């Protein structure tokens, strides 16, 4: 948020933008590393999945992918519901792709997509389809990011099927339809 505000406030002075952004990023690195260290030292029942997830996200935003991936299993192990667990598994998958471990990342994305067949049976169909829509669209985007057009298209189609499973004509789904259309456009542009 601070970076976005600074970019706007100093849009005519890229040097100031760069310096201030650098200061904020340095602060984020220090705080995220400290948070990770504190979380490691606390008893396991004192740190929630979502707290690990916040630390992981902060480490990722700072480019500290190796340190972020060290905490992913903690976030997954402490998940209290499907939302926390799927988010942590997807994050793990994305990190693996960033670290050049695409095959392992695909297995994690598949684990996230299959989570309702192995647990969380009481989740309603709408929530399952909505969650898997997001998993497949994210997976498609990650595949596109590493230049794997075929796999990106396959995952996009799976996301589209999930969208059809929960989509209604109500206006509340418009942002998701826009997300689907944007993903389709990006795939079309990059995979000619």
Topology record:
Elements: H1 2-9, H2 14-41, H3 49-61, H4 65-77, H5 82-98, H6 102-113, H7 115-118, H8 125-145, H9 149-166, H10 174-190
Helix pairs in contact: 1-2, 2-3, 3-4, 3-5, 4-5, 5-6, 5-8, 6-8, 8-9, 8-10, 9-10
Describe, in plain words, how this protein is organized in 3D.
The protein is mostly helical and 192 residues long. The chain has ten helices and no strands. It is globular, with a radius of gyration of 19 Å.
For the structure shown, list the relevant keywords.
192 residues, mainly alpha
Our count of helices gives: 10
Distance between the termini: 35 Å
What is the string of helix and strand elements? Answer: HHHHHHHHHH
Class by helix and strand content? mainly alpha
Which overall shape is indicated by the principal axes computed on the Cα atoms? globular
Mean pLDDT: 88
> What about the largest sheet?
none
Q: Enumerate the spans where pLDDT stays under 50 for 5 or more consecutive residues.
A: none
Number of strands: 0
Strand content: under 5%
Oligomeric state of the chains in view: single chain
How is this structure best summarized?
The chain is an all-alpha fold and 192 residues long.
């Amino acid at each position: 948020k601070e970076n976005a505000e600074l970019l706007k406030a100093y849009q005519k002075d890229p040097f100031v933008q760069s310096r201030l952004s650098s200061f904020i990023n340095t602060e984020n690195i220090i705080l995220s590393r400290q948070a990770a260290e504190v979380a490691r030292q606390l008893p396991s029942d004192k740190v929630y999945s979502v707290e690990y997830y916040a630390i992981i996200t902060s480490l990722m935003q700072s480019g500290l992918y190796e340190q972020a991936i060290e905490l992913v299993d903690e976030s997954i192990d402490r998940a209290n519901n499907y939302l926390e667990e799927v988010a942590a598994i997807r994050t793990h998958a994305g990190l693996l792709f960033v670290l050049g471990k695409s095959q392992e990342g695909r297995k994690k994305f598949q684990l996230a997509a299959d989570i309702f067949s192995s647990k969380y049976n009481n989740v309603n169909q709408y929530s399952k389809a909505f969650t898997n829509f997001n998993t497949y669209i994210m997976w498609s985007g990650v595949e596109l990011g590493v230049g794997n057009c075929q796999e990106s298209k396959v995952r996009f189609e799976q996301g589209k099927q999930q969208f059809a499973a929960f989509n209604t004509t109500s206006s509340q789904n418009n942002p998701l339809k826009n997300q689907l259309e944007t993903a389709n456009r990006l795939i079309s542009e990059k995979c000619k």
